[in-house]
């Protein structure tokens, strides 16, 4: 098989292949919805996603994955995926919201982002400070270092809203207590999530969402995935890696030689070039509907796929006979 020198990451067929990957992971994970076993759900998603990647015509390297090689059995950082083709960087979260899936709560989903080689931030599995707003707003509207009160005021003015009608989304964590209190004191409303901050970041960029901005800290790998999605819809995002000790700083330096690991990251620092993003719902949430079973062999899925080059957002509903799928878990489905 030969590949055109003009092949681009934004190839339409490749976009559809990525949807197949996230669908496979979502269907397999959904067999564990509400069973209280998050590790089993995550394992099913990983196995299905890994198998589905074998049919994708890329020479992919996982740069955002399930952990280091000695920490994860599959889809670890540095693992090769795909059946051969152009060199691509892969960012994956086989199951964002493992607890959400285990408890059958909203917003569990599976995600993959793809970029040309070298265009994703190689981020260790630590926390990242994040700030996201949607498209159609003045450039450089947000600043990660600005007080949240100023950010809220600026976003409200740019959107032509009273600050009392502005909705900020954040993870419900002890570390966010001050952020939440200050946002509410400034007059904004705050929507709190138990898990799943990538969905929240995307929601801040979707026109018919209630969310105006996302703020706070969450996983750095999820930050890169969020950046890929925000790139595709033309939103704005800033981030900064948060380190607990020197070993984490040293690891970040190894992954990005010559870069200051403590620097403020712009959107293109995290996801540059042509980018594809796909996600499929496992449980129904603000962005996607969850997997729905229709008898012993059929299921429906609801996915989103986006391309940065065209800024096109597509919602795809799939109907599957998973008894024919090589990635289906016989003990789970």
UniProtKB/TrEMBL annotation:
Keywords associated with the record: Carbohydrate metabolism, Hydrolase, Manganese, Metal-binding
Catalysed reactions listed for this entry: beta-D-fructose 1,6-bisphosphate + H2O = beta-D-fructose 6-phosphate + phosphate
Molecular function GO labels: fructose 1,6-bisphosphate 1-phosphatase activity
A Pfam entry, by short name: FBPase_glpX
Family: Belongs to the FBPase class 2 family.
Protein name as annotated: Fructose-1,6-bisphosphatase
Organism: Candidatus Kirkpatrickella diaphorinae
